[in-house]
Structures are given as C-alpha cells and as structure tokens.
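User: Some background: our group keeps a shared notebook of sequences we're curious about, and every so often someone picks one and asks for a predicted structure to add to the entry. Today it's my turn. The entry only has the sequence so far, pasted here. Could you supply the structure so I can complete it?
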Amino acid sequence: MAVINRIAGFADEMTAWRRHLHQHPELQFNCHETAGFVVARLREFGITEIHEGIATSGVVAIIDGQGAGPTIGLRADMDALPIEEATGLPHASTSPGKMHACGHDGHTTMLLGAAKYLAETRNFTGRVALIFQPAEEDGGGANVMCQEGIMERFDIAEIYALHNVPGLPEGRMTTTPGPIMAAVDTFHIYVTGVGGHGAMPHETKDPIIAAVGMVQAIQTIVSRNHYAADDLVVSVTQIHTGTADNVIPAEAYICGTVRTFDPEVQAMVKRRMEGIVAGQAAAYDVDVKLDYRAGYPATVNDPTKAAFASTVAEQIVGPENVDGAAGREMGAEDFAYMLERRPGAYLFLGQGDSAGLHHPEYEFNDAIAPIGASFFAKLIETAQPVA
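Assistant: Of course. Here's the predicted structure to add to the notebook entry:
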C-alpha cells in the first residue's frame, strides 16, 4: 500500500479531527459547527479562497495549482443521522439523538487531509474545488448546491467522491462504470374507511383488510410487471393502524421505498402502484390517497472517469485491492445530482469489519482516512500533472 508519506505523517492529526467531528454531529442542512471547524482547518492550511453558506452550511474552497488548467471537484458529505449512539467510546457523540453513523465525519476528514497536502505541495496544474456538503442523508444537499450554481460558479469540469464500506476489507477500493447506486422513491398510502366495533364488521369499511390487499398486490409489481434482469426493489416498510383489540379503526397508513436504475422501470412502478391503489380502494369500498415521491436519482459514473479513478486507486492500494467493475447496488446517494451535471466517479473504500452503516454501534475506522486522502491527492496530481 502506497499511502503518500506526507499524509501518513499527519495521520494522528487526522484522527483527532475525525474524533472531534464525531463528538459534534449535526443533521441535514444545519452543519454550521462542522463547517466552522472545516473552515478553520482550511485557513490553517493557507487556503484563502473559501466560500461559505452554500446550501445553508456548505463550503467550497479553491486551491490553485501551478499554471492554467481545469478545475476538478472533490466532495465530502458532513451531516450525521438522528440515531442515539451506543458505542460507549471516549469520543462518542455529545449530542443526544444524533450520531455520525455513516462515516461522514471520516469523509470530511479524508478531504481535509487531501486539502492539507495539496495546499502544501501544489504539485498540479489547474485548480481543485473542495466541496464540503450538508444534507446527504436527508434533504438532497448535493442538489441544492448544484441549484445554487457551484458547477458554473467554480467552473468545475469533473467531480469525485468516496464512501466507506463496513465488511469490505480494509483498504480495498471498488467502483463500476455506469450506474453504481439506485434511484430512490418513497410512497405513502393513506387508507380511510369507516371504523366500528370489532364484533360488528358489517357496519364498517375496514381499512386493515384494504391495506393488507394493497401490500400483497404491490409485491406483484416486482414479480409480474417487470423484466427479471432489470434491477428493482419495492419494499413496504411501515404499516400503522388500530388502537385496541376490539375496535376496527377508520384509517390505515402504508409506507415504503422503491429502488430502480431505469427511468422507464421507475415510471412503470409509479403507474402500477396508482392502478393497484385505485383498484383496491374500489374493491374494499374505502378512500385511498397515494403520495408517491421521487427522491435521489440513480448515481451514474462516467465510464472513462471511473476507469481513471480505478487506475489512481491502484497506485494507492495496489491493483490486487481494486475492483473497477464491482457492479451496482440498491442503496442511494445524492452525489447523483453532481454526476448528472458533470462527469466523474463515485468509489467505495473498505473499512474492514465493523457494525454496519446507520447502526448505533458503527464507528469509522481511522486507519483508512490516510488512504482516502492519498487517493484524492493522487487523483489530482495524476489528472493534472505539472510538466
């Protein structure tokens, strides 16, 4: 493994940054304290072009290289999750009900490490745009930053990001050309009937029976309405109704998620769900409202940029530890919005055995931070070398 020596030399400092961030998690767009910490470090590194308050608390900093050239964007997410931490670590969250359970504290640290090195050496041409983004978990901060014009304002030509992966061997890096993560939609179904005594169901319009029929029918979208080779997930994740054993309620609520890669498949699911809900409402004589919300689009790597990023990763962790055609997965990521606007690539970095992402016992592996920082730095130096 060829972690850049200078970055390895301040690995302990990176660990301190990460653990500070872990102790002070913030949610959605309200990452003001995190952004303040980031800006303070960037100024310590001698970076003078720093733009704050983008998408409420996002930060973009520019490092100029030696001579003219394009601008490459490097992105890290900063927000945490509304989870009560259960690690018991000395640096555990000090904010009740908030936790860095997805490693965004580590992602921010990796980009800060790359920033420190690149600001010192400037062994590249063109510019680097360091993008510290809020609201990846909820709110689509990447989309808001794009809507506020960061691609045009900073003339970003291409863009890259990393995410840690529990269970993937420490230091192993993967990506894939084309789609790498799915689009995510959410559906909410509100069923309204007529409640009554559990002993007199004939006097009611039972929303429970209607809800059960809808849930069963929704499962046929995957099994009967789409080609089996097209990746599709439709999962009902919530059903809420009723208050007592002898009362038929008046209302029921169903919620779930849809994951797709193909816009035509996505449209088919919405169309079929509308038909199912209307049909079941008629069958059970209840009123139904479907609220179908399109979320993050599919995360789609530019094939050329993904291949380039893989070759850079090989320089850091060795060819035997890089899979540039690892395939796609059904998770979602709002970096998709940035890749819709500029070519680039999203990669995964293994952090070894740990609790899974979004788990209350998850802990970022500080040993991989210098790897991620070295990857970002080497990518810039390889893409835009000094003659």
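Suggested note for the entry: Residues 263-284 form the longest helix (22 residues). The two ends are 26 Å apart (CA to CA).
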